[in-house]
Design a protein that fits this description.
Domain SRP54-type proteins GTP-binding: 268-281
Protein name: Signal recognition particle protein
Number of strands: 8
Main location: cytoplasm
Strand order of the largest sheet: 3-2-4-1-5-6-7-8
Distance between the termini: 13 Å
Oligomer: single chain
Bound molecules: guanosine-5'-diphosphate
EC number: 3.6.5.4
Helix content: 40-55%
Family: Belongs to the GTP-binding SRP family. SRP54 subfamily.
Length: 295
């Protein structure tokens, strides 16, 4: 996804490389290029501005350094700040000391929520944590079927109750079943809409209050573009989410917008989805992503 970005930055830094001294003008010119490249990758505008301010402040010091390759040092400053913009360090799933840990998956319809619930359950099971899925998306009957199919494929139990639309009751009953089975984790797949609306948020708030989740993971479609940040803010304001999962990061869309979610909300990106298959979920490492962008 970032090949083009990497290439352009490479060219910018190559021009500066080999110079014994960097002037302020050199740095300004280099950073203008970085700015253009970030905006082209769809990184949030406000975030790009803050990022460049910080890089510029630190980079001015580089002009004073002689002998040690100043362009290299500028790249280092850019890398460090890019890492900070993406989240600083890798953060895994938080587990409750009293099992089962309740994980709520939230996000718009089509974001990849149900698929990601399956991927996460698969990962937890592989780590030796007995996991159960709960189908709390009662508006689309197909969503319950989809989760049950995933459960069968993965050999992971799914709790569903087609006789009621009361999601709080469904979630509570599912968690009871999980307690009896001594499951370590339950993942609650919730309903999504095409857009944020008050009714959906109310339901999710009630669900949150009832099940007291350790994690509320906001699932964002990495191809959404600038909207992704606004949607993340909407979910975060209503639910105070604990983490973010970006899906469809295998596409060739400009993923910079989705990658801006941490910078704006300060909620860590925990995983990225990189394909439709159930093993296509990766831990998100901000430093590695920054490295991939800059290479
Ligand atoms: P939901 O409505 O949020 O539950 O979304 P779904 O889980 O049904 O996913 C919507 C579509 O996105 C499906 O066709 C998934 O296969 C696809 N999808 C989900 N995650 C990824 C991903 O990481 N990469 C790709 N390429 N497709 C994905």
């Amino acid at each position: 996804m970032f090949d083009e970005l990497t290439e352009k930055l490479e060219a910018t830094f190559a021009r500066l490389r080999g110079r014994g001294v960097l002037t302020e003008a050199d740095i300004k010119e280099g950073l203008r290029e970085v700015r253009r490249v970030l905006l082209e990758a769809d990184v949030n505008f406000q975030l790009t501005r803050q990022f460049l301010e910080r890089v510029e402040q630190k980079a001015i010091g580089v002009t004073q350094l002689r002998g040690v390759n100043p362009a290299q040092q500028l790249v280092k400053v850019v890398y460090d700040e890019l890492t900070a913009m993406l989240g600083e360090r890798q953060e895994g799933l938080k587990l409750s000391t009293i099992p089962p840990t309740v994980v709520m998956m939230v996000g718009l319809q089509g974001s990849g929520k149900t698929t990601t619930a399956g991927k996460l359950a698969r990962k937890l099971k592989a780590e030796g944590r007995q996991t159960r899925l709960i189908a709390a998306d009662v508006y689309r009957p197909a969503a319950i079927d989809q989760l049950e199919t995933l459960g069968q494929q993965l050999d992971i139990p799914v709790y569903a109750d087609r006789s009621t639309k009361d999601v709080v009751r469904i979630a509570r009953d599912g968690i009871e079943q999980a307690k009896r089975a001594r499951d370590r984790v339950v993942i609650v797949d919730t309903a999504g809409r095409l857009q944020i609306d008050a009714e959906l948020m109310d339901e999710l708030k009630r669900l949150k209050a009832a099940v007291q989740p350790t994690e509320i993971l906001f699932v964002a479609d990495g191809m959404t573009g600038q909207e992704a940040v606004r949607i993340a803010q909407g979910f975060d304001e209503a639910l105070n989410v604990t983490g973010v999962i970006l899906t469809k990061m295998d596409g060739d869309a400009r993923g910079g917008a989705a990658l801006s979610i941490y910078g704006i909300t300060k909620k860590p990106i925990k995983y990225i989805g990189v394909g439709e298959k159930l093993d296509a979920l990766e831990d998100f490492h901000p430093d590695r992503m920054a490295g991939r962008i800059l290479q």
